[in-house]
Amino acid sequence: MTLPLYSTESGARAPWRLAALLALVTAVLLALAGCAAPGAGADAAMPRTAADLTDAERRAQVRLELATAYFARGQAQTALEELHLVLAAQPDLAEAFNLRGLVLASMGELRPAEDSFRRALELAPRDGDTMHNWAWVMCQHRRYAEADALFARALDQPQYRGVTRTLLARGVCQAREGNLALAERTLSRAYERDPGSAATGVNLAEVLLRLGQAERARFYINRVNAQPDVVNAQTLWLAARIEHRLGNVAAVADYGRRLRADFPQSPETLAFERRQFDD
Known about the structure:
The chain is built from 14 helices and no strands. By secondary structure, the chain is mostly helical. The model is unreliable at 7-33 (pLDDT under 50).
């Protein structure tokens, strides 16, 4: 699930790229906000030992793990086949329908994906992760009102554990729709909950820059770029754009040198060379 205006992957702008989406399925949140892993929502059952499971449930769990792994490797069709076997063994497994919705959405099958999410919520009505995933899919298809309503539902779940992730995704979606002031408030809430999140810091800085608040944007992007393990062409290019807006010629040149040295083939370095600071 690609999430934010920016990802923390090196070099690539992030509308809905499958690789980012997949990373989220297994990691439960791309550094940016994307999709939730099946089974972690408010309706998830208490952990059970292998001895507690029936043979059918054990088969379903093994197949669900395989489906998740295949999807994470970009093998959507194989994941879908495994999910068919999961649901043959356990037809009422909400987590399987949640993952099936993500797989189908990645294949461009929007209507069947929505049917799967809807079925997952019939089986687990309070599962915030399914609401989050369905919302993110709606956001990718520019169905912003539906996405925002689903994000709101997820955030309203009393025991939902993905609040920070959902705030980030919701803020990104609001920014994509053009609601920058609302996006700034939502992303600020996400940042308050997790100030170490590079994804939130980058997206909040981008929104603030678009709102004309370059000084505030500088604060957030500088905190991101102070983390060597998350610095990439995107974060350096955003910092250069912010310094350009502030009229800091020396800082702009310094970021240009870093882009050329570390990411010479990136689209961001090309944009820097073309002086496309305001595009």
